[in-house]
Amino acid sequence: MEGDDNNNYTRPLLTPPQPNSSAAVFTTESHDIPPITTPRIFGREFLLESKKLWYLAGPAIFTSVCQYSLGAITQLFAGHVGTLELAAVSVENSVIAGFCFGIMLGMGSALETLCGQAFGAGQLSMLGIYMQRSWVILNTTCLILCLLYVFAKPLLNFIGQTASISKAAGEFAVWMIPQLFAYAMNFPIQKFLQAQSKIMVMAWIAAAALVMHLLLSWLLMLRLGWGLVGAAVVLNGSWWFIVVAQLVYILSGTCGEAWSGFSIKAFENLWGFVRLSLASAVMLCLEMWYFMALILFAGYLKNAEVSVDALSICMNILGWTVMVSIGMNAAVSVRVSNELGASHPRAAKFSLVVAVVTSFILGVVMSLLLIIFRKQYPSLFSNDSEVKELVMELTPMLAFCIIINNVQPVLSGVAVGAGWQSLVAYVNIACYYLFGVPLGLILGYVFDFGVKGIWSGMLTGTVVQTCVLFIIVYRTDWNKEASLAEERIKKWGGHEDSKSNGVAAQQS
């Protein structure tokens, strides 16, 4: 809105939570933010945007940590049952469920674009329809992915697992099929709630599930001696508890116009929806599998056991820190999609700036803590002196990786919020697999730099990808993106006459 000045600018409002609401909801009944021309305006808008981001990011981070911990707790108790049981749960979680988790989360992320932009434009009735379309597509995909669970035993044998581990993990995988369908229901629900800034309800449900999971895992796996059967019952039950609790919240009427019941429209425009879902899945999975490949490559080095152990410790720490960036990713995706949907291009761009600065600072703080305690923290994971020494040597690289991986998901979140999934998928293929992986293999094997060489090369690919995303974002015409958001809403079933009263989409 080039004609706006500070006198007729209306600051975005934060409406207090209503009795039935579990989160603060930011209204779109405002003009775009004013041009940032002075440090005072920058400071004021930075503070306002930070509050909006953290209302979303804080509970989102907590939810991610709780859900990430479900599998970790199961592995912890499996370790007290027996060595074979621990190996079976670990392999199923990391190989079979981990692979499917990435696909389901990626496909569900398509709703971050559609629901976020529809909410920002006031097309509230479309949110429920989008969620139902995603359920149809993800559950259909699950029917195909079930084959991985059914044939897990021969698959694990094929990739080199021992016969005993393959048999135990294969049986456990079949028992975990209900979890796969819980993924298919859960991720669309999460994106549906995130788009409306209803994050706190997800956090409370995840916390309740974590407590229940901890108690039942102890009771069934250890106290009653159910072993792997108990692990499957509890893990499936915890994920379905999350799904059912969130559905009860939605069906109770707390989402207003966003949920108007089941509709036949869920089966319309499915092919276009599938393409966007697949693009989201490819984009996310290429990122998730990239660092999984790092451990795989380390297994072929001369001192493979020490290298794999040290890298596993580093990846474990990186996994926990990534929960922070995932929360910020979800927050900035919602903010950007909401503002583009409301035709607020300057607000969308500034939300990106605030998220990148905040994530960078968080990454620096976490990295400094690791460097300060680099001689102490390896002892928490291993008693082997060689492993601890290698972890200490890798700590500076891990610290740098944490900083990069705190900023990069924010840019990916912007890409999801703006609907650039296909573009970023191509960027990921080029930077990660055509550049990063070959460079890592050359440094690690040809130049004999070992695990540090492999990680250095692959980390360089991440840096290049982050730089490319920066360039794309910097050159983006945000006014055009706001117009595209309106067209996207119309394409997927929204109509001008269905906008909520009082939602004014200001044109630039």
From TrEMBL:
InterPro entries: MATE_euk, MATE_fam. It is a multi-pass membrane protein. Keywords: Membrane, Transmembrane, Transmembrane helix. It is found in: Membrane. It holds the Pfam family MatE. Its main location: membrane. Residues 1-10 have a biased composition (Polar residues). It comes from the Eukaryota. Residues 1-24 are annotated as: Disordered. The chain crosses the membrane at residues 53-74, 94-114, 135-152, 172-189, 201-220, 226-251, 272-298, 310-332, 352-374, 394-416, 423-447, 453-474. Belongs to the multi antimicrobial extrusion (MATE) (TC 2.A.66.1) family. PANTHER family: MULTIDRUG RESISTANCE PROTEIN (PTHR11206). This is Protein DETOXIFICATION. The gene is DTX29_1.
